[in-house]
Amino acid sequence: MSSTTATTAAVTGAEGFIGSHLVEKLVADGHRVRAMVQYNSFSSFGWLETLGQDVLDNVEIVLGDVRDPGSVTGLVKGADAVYHLAALIAIPYSYQAPHSYVETNVTGTLNVLEAVRHLEIPRLVHTSTSETYGTAQTVPITEDHPINTQSPYAASKAGGDRLADSYHASFETPVVTLRPFNTFGPRQSMRAVIPTVIGQVAAGERTITLGDLRPTRDFLYVKDTAAAFATVGTAPAEQVVGRTFNAGTGGEISVGDLVTLVGKLMDADLTVREDTDRIRPAASEVMRLVADATRLREATGWAPAHSLEEGLLHTIEFFRDPANLARYKTDLYNV
């Protein structure tokens, strides 16, 4: 595929945080996008509704569900590439509803793989997560790090990864797996730590309610994540197909230090109140994640274009817009 050719890219999970940014990136690169939005009776297209008309003119929105094979087949038919981002992602909710995670993240992925296989789609980009590694045993984390799933969410994502690997090995399905580390930026839900902190500060709070402040994370700005998806979706097959790639910065910061940095950038003197409801079970907490993205850089030339502070400033600007802040319930704990 070439960014100068009007190819068709199908995206599952297109209405979500990363998915909507990826749709923007693909359109900017010259693709037409067929975007699956999970069927709902509110006729809501999620974050796609906030995109400019110049973007939406190149997007066909399809209501469906990755748990339904027919929906997936209709979405991917005739596509030049499929980007599979649809997933249940909130770790705390996976403790409450693990069956839902298996149905979406494992069976949904199976449906996508089957459709891509039988319709002979030239490229499938499957989305993994750094949570499949669990707490770092060696640092930085390469793609050869052991898989150690410490939550039902992580286990369901690892299941999808193994299916993707097996389809490439068994059927030569042209799949590449991208494993982003902790993506952040505008449009992210309040179940993640950065919008939780920034959203509370933007709403006027100076005592921030959080869980454990000790874990460290490798935070990747969402536009860099979208660029990584687009890169592995268009790179020559011999460079990427059948491989798994980390996408991260190689840096890390603790949640506690992150709060301090956000306070500095927002000119706010912050204190933290611990909420035990936000703390994961001890054996389930992933204490340290930091990426080694050498494989992705060497295969494609991709590298992050934004520093943590630059990304935070863009995110702060987003949440300080009253129209954007009004979309969030900053006073509620989002599971």
From TrEMBL:
Signal peptide: none annotated. Residues 11-312 form the NAD(P)-binding domain. InterPro entries: Arna-like_SDR_e, NAD(P)-bd_dom, NAD(P)-bd_dom_sf. SUPFAM superfamilies: NAD(P)-binding Rossmann-fold domains (SSF51735). Residues 137-159 are annotated as: Disordered. It comes from the Bacteria. Transmembrane segments: none annotated. This is NAD-dependent 4,6-dehydratase LegB. It comes from Kitasatospora arboriphila. The lineage of its organism: Bacteria, Bacillati, Actinomycetota, Actinomycetes, Kitasatosporales.
